[in-house]
Specification:
mainly alpha; 74% helix; transmembrane helix; Histidine kinase; transmembrane
């Protein structure tokens, strides 16, 4: 084992559910980071628009709770995907370029989180949310959310980057073989 993987093995999670715990933890911390950005830019998105997606009235920290729950779910999806043979193979593959060849598995996992955040932004708020709003309707708070979609790119990229960093710090991917989840 190299020095980097020995350190990761000593501190990282291992076992059949490490991806679940690492993904949920990374998703929680990433969602909080994204939530802080949203709160600073437009607190109405968290307090009213997110609950409005589900037809709920804005009550206390309900929007924060829903937002963090979304982050946990997405973090678990990231953990599941990143530990499957296809994505492990991509992360571990030898790169043809010098710049990529010098990157570690940790850096590649963080980059995968960044890409995951971009994909989440492209799929959920840009494609799914408009269909959801047309199908189930929405109130005025939901209109604030749809107008904030373009501005949420930074938040989704931050979410994915933090998710990837926390996942890389908590889950040992160095000597991992893909396992059947659960």
């Amino acid at each position: 084992m190299s020095g980097d993987s020995e350190t990761m093995a000593a501190t990282g999670l291992s076992g059949h559910t490490d991806w679940l715990v690492g993904g949920a933890l990374g998703g929680t911390i990433g969602a909080v980071a994204f939530g802080i950005v949203m709160w600073l830019l437009d607190p109405n998105v968290l307090s009213a628009a997110i609950p409005a997606i589900y037809g709920l009235e804005p009550v206390g920290p309900l929007g924060w709770g829903i937002h963090v729950a979304h982050g946990i779910g997405l973090g678990v999806v990231f953990g599941l995907l990143i530990t499957r043979p296809l994505f492990l193979g991509i992360l571990r593959s030898d790169a043809e370029t010098d710049a990529l060849a010098r990157t570690s598995l940790v850096v590649r996992t963080i980059a995968a989180g960044f890409v995951f955040g971009l994909v989440v932004w492209a799929v959920l708020p840009l494609l799914v949310l408009p269909v959801w709003m047309d199908t189930f309707g929405g109130s005025g708070g939901a209109n604030a959310l749809t107008s904030a979609v373009a501005g949420s790119l930074f938040g989704h990229l931050l979410f994915g980057t933090v998710l990837g960093a926390v996942f890389a710090a908590t889950v040992d991917l160095h000597d991992r073989t893909a396992e059947i989840p659960f």
